[in-house]
């Protein structure tokens, strides 16, 4: 399944973020033939730096299912759109990705993004992120769970594309209307 | 008056305590009549712009449910000392909009039999009102809340007009249930919902966020902040974060002179008015009356009967569910579209269908209704955020867990008993030094039997549907539906009740109660439509009391 910038817009809409600068830029840039793997060019005044976004994409490549593609095109606009609207989220995700890179540097002598999927997965588990409670002001693993892993999972599974992976096209958190609930499997009435 | 000016209104005709649905409707209606109204609300205003962020809090496991609407802490301290724990802060919201901010939005009228419970069923008491007395107010309440419904419930009381909005279409799983119910002789029908099925009253239609309880981000679900805005446009002053500490009578002990309220800076103010209306819910209203004890009212204000705080009752939940061998399409929306009142007036009746039926019961039972859930089983996004895994393994878990669940719920009437009550716990104080409410709540034998009866009916339906049952909520593990009723009961005998049929307290001439607190009995329907109907009736009585001739005679 290929994620797109359109999916990111849907995820932002579900979060009530439809008017911010990044979301507006995203909404304007909806050409269907755009390369979904292209790394978007960031505005000079973007709210998150390139390194933070790259770390989030690298984490998404681990926590998203393996047959999901187009991750960069999804993560960049979603995260920058949300960070632009919610300063507390921006600060939290910035700090959490820095924490993740610090652990990678200390424990692996490498950047998190350079570890490769298996190495990133191993580092996250070694930190205890998989069993940590998501706590925005908690310990390092708890903050990484909240701002990195759960943020990415929320963006994916509360969106119609992520819901489709599981079998629900209008998952909780997405304003998908009042038709799908009346329909049976395969859209039957 | 600015949003931060919390000084008293100098010209108030009416002081309303509480900005939930009852207080909002009373204020709006009186403002329409040209009266000066001030509303004192203990909680804050919540910005509409924050609704999506609150929704995210409901889905993401980092946050406690009570935190969504900022319940908890010293302001909301309480005790629960009865046989059954009562999770009070999960059951209410303090703020502009009140508990409609987190309600589910099911709105049906009480049955005619509910008003004659003692006469017809031999338990509880009769209301001093009939269904016919409330019938016009029910219609007005449905318009005020914007009820989407259909006249397809053969057990419902007579209506004079259609609902304001068309009913929501039944869900896919409703159809599965309807077929099974028909085969065992149980009639199903639509649920009236206080949520827009199409644009109404300046609010959008439902867009299916699926988080109705406790947050509707779109505003399609009615909440009383909508009516508060209408009231304010008519000149009503709403003072938030202003918990009323006590009501004071003056030289005439039969009339309230002022409501004393506190503001965030710790200052106390006195709001005077000609008429006072308590609309702060079934817990805080009796608490305030008890806190208003004085030499003239040593047992609490309006408590000559000793009934203030007593006869607290709720609806009990009974349920059962499990999985089917096919997809059931759950968790697309967060509200119900079908239910059954088939046993409401005859809880022990038998049914017969083409594939058997429900056996009769000769036990002494209360009223109950059946509900068919649209959100049975796990929500994939919530499950993902709490899992100990990610990637392909997580996706496999989600696919394995989601998709085949169904569930039935049910509400059971609880007969009011004096021993169940809201009292003051003087060993614990809130952030202003006032004794906190002590919820003393227990179950009686009739309620237990009725919960078992609901499970019996649900088992028949689920077996016919072919459900592999994996959960059951009955007498042992039931909980309240968060409908606080009965603590300032209505009646004609001042020795047995707190308010008269016109909702004025027997003891205090300018004090009325608009709340489910006045319900003598609660039937088995969700109470808010009846609360709204009584609030509209209350407004009429207050308006009449404000007439010069009425004023002159006291």
Please describe what this structure looks like.
- The complex is a heterodimer of chains A (189) and B (554).
- Chain A has 189 residues and is mainly alpha-helical.
- Chain A has helices at residues 5-14, 21-28, 50-63, 71-85, 87-108, 116-127, 140-157, 160-166.
- In chain A, helix 2 (21-28) runs antiparallel to helix 4, helix 4 crosses helix 5 (87-108) and helix 5 (87-108) packs across helix 6.
- Chain A is globular.
- Chain A starts with a helix and ends in a 23-residue tail after the last helix.
- In chain A, 47% of the residues are buried.
- In chain B, helix 4 packs across helix 11 and helix 5 (172-183) crosses helix 10 (445-465).
- With 554 residues, chain B is of the alpha/beta class.
- Chain B has helices spanning 21-32, 51-59, 117-121, 131-145, 172-183, 225-233, 281-291, 380-386, 391-401, 445-465, 528-546, 548-553, and strands spanning 14-17, 37-40, 79-80, 148-149, 165-166, 189-190, 237-239, 244-249, 256-262, 268-272, 275-278, 316-317, 319-323, 338-340, 368-372, 405-412, 421-429, 435-440, 468-473, 511-513.
- The two termini of chain B are 31 Å apart.
- In chain B, a hairpin with a 5-residue loop joins strand 17 and strand 18 (435-440).
- Chain B is 25% helix and 16% strand.
- In chain B, strands 6, 12, 13, 14, 15, 16 and 19 form a seven-stranded antiparallel beta sheet that branches. In chain B, strands 7-2-1-11-20 form a five-stranded parallel beta sheet, covered by helices on one side.
- Chain B is built from twelve helices and 20 strands.
- The interface between A and B is large, with 46 and 50 residues.
- Chain B: Belongs to the GMC oxidoreductase family.
């Amino acid at each position: 399944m290929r994620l797109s910038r359109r999916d990111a817009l849907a995820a932002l809409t579900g979060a009530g973020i439809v008017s911010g600068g990044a979301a507006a830029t995203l909404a304007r840039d909806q050409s269907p033939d755009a390369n979904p793997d292209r790394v978007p060019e960031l505005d000079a005044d973007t709210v998150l730096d390139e390194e933070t976004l790259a770390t989030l994409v690298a984490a998404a490549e681990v926590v998203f299912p393996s047959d999901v593609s187009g991750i960069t095109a999804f993560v960049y606009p979603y995260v920058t759109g949300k960070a632009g609207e919610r300063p507390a989220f921006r600060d939290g995700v910035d700090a959490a990705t820095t924490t993740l890179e610090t652990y990678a540097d200390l424990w692996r002598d490498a950047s998190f993004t350079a570890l490769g999927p298996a190495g990133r997965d191993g580092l996250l588990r070694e930190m205890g992120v998989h069993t940590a409670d998501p706590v925005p002001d908690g310990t390092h693993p708890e903050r990484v769970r909240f701002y990195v892993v759960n943020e990415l999972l929320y963006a994916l599974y509360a969106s119609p594309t992520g819901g489709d992976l599981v079998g629900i096209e209008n998952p909780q958190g997405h304003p998908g209307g009042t038709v799908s609930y009346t329909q049976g499997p395969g859209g039957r009435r | 008056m600015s949003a931060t000016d919390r000084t008293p209104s100098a010209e108030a005709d009416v002081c309303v305590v509480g900005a939930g649905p009852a207080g909002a409707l009373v204020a709006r209606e009186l403002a329409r009549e040209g009266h000066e109204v001030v509303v004192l609300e203990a909680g804050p205003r919540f910005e509409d712009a924050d609704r999506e962020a609150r929704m995210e809090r409901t889905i993401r496991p980092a946050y406690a449910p009570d935190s969504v609407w900022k319940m908890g802490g010293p302001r909301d301290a309480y005790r629960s000392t009865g046989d059954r724990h009562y999770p009070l802060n999960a059951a209410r919201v303090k703020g502009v909009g009140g508990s409609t901010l987190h309600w589910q939005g099911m709105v049906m009228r009480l049955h005619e039999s509910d008003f004659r419970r003692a006469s017809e069923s031999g338990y509880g008491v009769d209301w001093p009102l009939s269904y016919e007395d409330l019938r016009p107010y029910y219609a007005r309440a449905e318009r005020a809340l914007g009820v989407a419904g259909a006249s397809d419930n053969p057990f419902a009381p007579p209506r004079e007009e259609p609902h304001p909005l068309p009913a929501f279409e039944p869900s896919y799983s409703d159809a599965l249930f309807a077929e099974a119910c028909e085969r065992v002789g149980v009639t199903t029908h639509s649920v009236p919902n206080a949520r827009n099925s199409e644009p109404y009253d300046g609010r959008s239609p439902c867009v299916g966020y699926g988080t109705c309880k406790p947050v509707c981000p779109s505003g399609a679900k009615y909440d009383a902040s909508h009516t508060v805005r209408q009231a304010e446009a008519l000149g009503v002053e709403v003072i938030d974060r202003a918990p009323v500490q006590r009501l004071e009578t003056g030289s005439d002990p039969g009339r309230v002179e002022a409501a004393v309220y506190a503001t965030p800076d710790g200052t106390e103010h006195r709001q005077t008015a000609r008429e006072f209306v308590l609309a702060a819910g079934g817990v805080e209203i009796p608490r305030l009356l008890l806190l208003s004890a004085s030499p003239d009212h040593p047992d609490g204000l309006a408590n000559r009967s000793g009934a203030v705080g007593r006869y607290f009752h709720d609806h009990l939940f009974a349920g059962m569910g499990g999985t089917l061998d096919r997809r059931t399409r759950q968790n697309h929306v967060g509200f119900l579209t079908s239910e059954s009142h088939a046993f409401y007036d005859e809880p022990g009746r038998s049914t017969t269908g083409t594939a058997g039926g429900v056996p009769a019961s000769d036990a002494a039972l209360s009223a109950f209704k059946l509900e068919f859930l649209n959100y049975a089983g796990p929500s994939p996004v919530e499950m993902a955020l709490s899992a100990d895994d990610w990637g392909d393994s997580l996706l496999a878990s989600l696919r394995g867990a989601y998709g085949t669940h169904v569930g039935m719920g049910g509400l059971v009437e609880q007969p009011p008993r004096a021993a169940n009550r809201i009292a003051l716990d003087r060993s614990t104080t809130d952030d202003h030094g006032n004794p906190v409410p002590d919820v003393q709540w227990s179950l009686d034998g009739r309620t237990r039997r009725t919960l078992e009866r609901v499970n019996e009916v649900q088992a028949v339906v689920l077996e016919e549907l072919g459900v592999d049952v994996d959960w059951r909520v009955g007498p042992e593990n039931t909980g309240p539906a968060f409908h606080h009723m009965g603590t300032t009961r209505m009646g004609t005998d001042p020795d047995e009740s707190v308010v008269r049929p016109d909702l004025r307290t027997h003891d205090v001439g300018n004090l009325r109660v608009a709340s489910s607190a006045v319900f003598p009995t609660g039937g088995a329907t969700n109470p808010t439509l009846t609360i709204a109907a009584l609030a509209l009736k209350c407004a009429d009585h207050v308006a009449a009391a404000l007439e010069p001739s009425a004023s002159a005679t006291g």
